[in-house]
Amino acid sequence: MDMLELVDIFVLALLVATAVAVARVRNLWAAVMFTGIYSFLGASWMLILDAPDVAFTEAAVGAGISTVLMLGTLALTSREEKPIKKSPVLPLIVVVVTGSTLIYGTLDMPRVGDPSAPVHTRMDPSYIEKSEHDMHGEMPNVVTSVLASYRGYDTLGETTVIFTAGIAVLLILRKPGKRKTELPNGADQKGSHG
Amino acid sequence: MDNFPIIRVITKLLMPYILLFAFYVQFHGDFGPGGGFQAGVILAAGLILYGLVFGLPALQKVAPPRVIEWLIALGVLVYAGTGIATMLLGGKFLDYEALKHQVLPGWLPEGQHLGIFLVELGVGITVTSVMTVIFYCFAGREPVDGH
Predict the structure, then answer these.
(1) ipTM, interface predicted TM-score of the complex
(2) Residue B94 region, left (φ>0) first, then alpha (ψ -120 to 50), else beta?
(3) Do B130 and A163 make contact, defined as CB atoms within 8 angstroms?
(4) Where are the domains of chain B?
């Protein structure tokens, strides 16, 4: 138990250090790398909290894909942040007040893993009790049965959101005139940032 | 990336495992952690890694942009189509119980299991192709104003 707590503290301390580094570093390339590291540490933290599926997503999207997209954006713009001329006092006050409020909010939260916490008692436990029967014993993963079956409508909506987001990015960012050059053969694409 | 043989070799070594892991997360999601979304982003991350190391044209040979753009819609279609299929088979929208014993009994899973398999497949297809297409949009652009 002590060992696990040590790991918790280590990961959380690294998270804080990375967050501070992201905020302080002026070189945007380094900042993007730090956000990637931050996401990877976040994925490790999710793993410690017994949420491996969230950890998959965080590692693949946060540390992988979005880091690559940020680097792709940097390749198109500038690598150095412009120097800040405004006074940092007002933003500092806002951040301190918001942070204190958030920390004050955590004081009411139950201990991690507390069996009497609302998350373990308030949610209708019938999902867990009935899943085995409703799924005819073929679906041991209750998370999957809730997401894809009990709440299939929600997941259809989420998939549609991803679909819409993809179409929106396509409409905004697709190279103008790409269709004409692209249709004969797909190989005459320029701009490999390999 | 032609000057980095270590990265090229390591990527080639890792690629099958990344893809296999994505399919494992996709098709084993009913037993272990994961599902369509996780599998989709892992698969897309594998494709993007390939594109980073071997260049955009190489990736677009594997995953042609036209096909990927169709797949975005196909995933949602598979999901919603499963719902329509359950309606046609006499159930409610996305009521997988209607899929019982209808399609190749003994070969395919049935009922809830088949329904969840199909909708997760739809989610996986859409997520993979959306992530890949966003990468194409970013990587395929030229810098403006001579940066």
Answers:
(1) 0.88
(2) left
(3) yes
(4) 5-139
